[in-house]
Model the fold of this input.
Amino acid sequence: MLRKFIHLNLLLGIMLLLASCGSQQAADQTNDQSAQNNPAVDTTGTIGENGMFVFKAYDLEGGLRDSREWVGKKPVVLNFWGTWCPPCRKEIPDLVKVYNEYTSDQIEMIGLAVRDSPENVRTFSEQNGMNWIMLMGDQNLGIRYGITGVPTTIFIDRNGNEIGRFVGPRDYQTFKDAFELALRS
Done:
C-alpha cells in the first residue's frame, strides 16, 4: 500500500513538473529528449544529508558538480527555470539586478535549467546577463525537492537549510528582501 502511494506521488510530481509553464512546442520536446539521453542529475544523493540540500548536476560544459561546493558554506539561492518558460523569462531581469548587487563572496546563486539543452541555456544566459552558476536540472531533482513548477526559487542559509521558497515569478523587491534574509540567517 505504501509503495503504491509513493509511486502515485512520484507520478503526480512528474505530471505537475511537465505541465508547468504551459504546453511545450515541438522544439522544446526535442530539447527534452536530448536531455533525457544524457541524464543531468546523479539521483543517488539523498535529501537531508546533515539537513542540507545535496545533489549532483551537470554544468553547461558537461562537468558533474556537487551542491556541497556551495551549500553549507554560504547562503545559496537555487532557481529552477527554463528558457522556454514565459514566467521564468519575466523574472530574470529582476534576478539579474538583485544578483549584481551581491558578490559571490556573500551569496551564491545557482540556476537549474529544466527541460532544456545546455546550448539554449548558455546562449540565453549570456544574452541576459545571468552570470551565476548554471546547471542542468531534471525531473528527479525537481521531485526530490518538491518542485511543482517553474520558476521556483529556493533560499538556503549558510548551514544548508531551506529558509524560503517562491513558486512562480517574483519582482525585484521581493527577491531583494529574500536575499537579505538569506544573508542574515
Observations:
- The longest strand covers residues 76-81.
- The longest helix spans residues 2-19.
- Confidence is low (pLDDT under 50) at residues 2-20, 22-48.
- Residues 100 and 164 are 20 Å apart (CA to CA).
